[in-house]
Amino acid sequence: MSLNDGKSTQLDSDLLRTFLAVAKAGSVSGGAAHLLRTQSAVSLQVQKLEGTVGQRMFERHGRGVTMTAAGEQLLPVARRVVEMLDQTVADLRGTQAEEEIRLGIPEEYGDTILPSILAAFTEEEPTSRIFVRCSSSMEFPHALAAGELDIALHSPERVSKDDVVVHSERAVWAGSVFHNIETRRPLPVALFDKTCWWRERCLDLLRKSGLEHQIVCTSESVSGIRAAIAAGIAIGVLPQSALTDQMRTLADEKLPQLGETHLMLTNSSNAPKRLAGKLTMIISRTFEGK
Fold this sequence. Notes:
The protein is of the alpha/beta class and 290 residues long.
């Protein structure tokens, strides 16, 4: 049976707003909370939208919803239409529409660089809102492609011509200041999980160096790696600036050289251009001052 019952062939902007809220939240309940509506009302709106276009917008699962191919196709259109309507109303009323931007930033910079970025952004854009996802940067390329983020700071394996390099620093082998375990064999190592390209690079370098080693800790987050290093159960690889006062840079000549790590800013194709440009400038300026 077709989803389209033939009763409606027009897209209501209210349906688009509901679609965007659910897509952004990743669940019907989250979208309902954002819209200050009941979950059943939002579900009915989604069903009405799907009936109008004759396609399912979301696949339901236990943890929420994910967009279908049709939903991915509608997302940028819905965002442009809603933004245009809001801006038109603001222009007619003689007021400036409230703008927002969604930033992804690696968790290791959450308590160092991020406060300065937020302070500068709020000072320069007092009427705009910024939503921050502070987590593993391995998630960011997918989030950008899926329209979940507008701009992200991350360390990709390869640099794209469209990426903006805002910071480069040494990647170092780090150990605890209270323990000397770098001479143990096999060498105990803490690494990121398999989604991180740095993991394979480190393992390849260790194999080529001939060092006998053993992975004793795997973590999805920087905090997990730092905890393992600080506890003295393993050594690990981190950017120089990510070291805490419980860690030290290892100068053992037997450890392979790691080179530099580059932090890039990548924009999604649908990022608000003015705010993305302003945030790029603020982030670049903040790193230059460090």
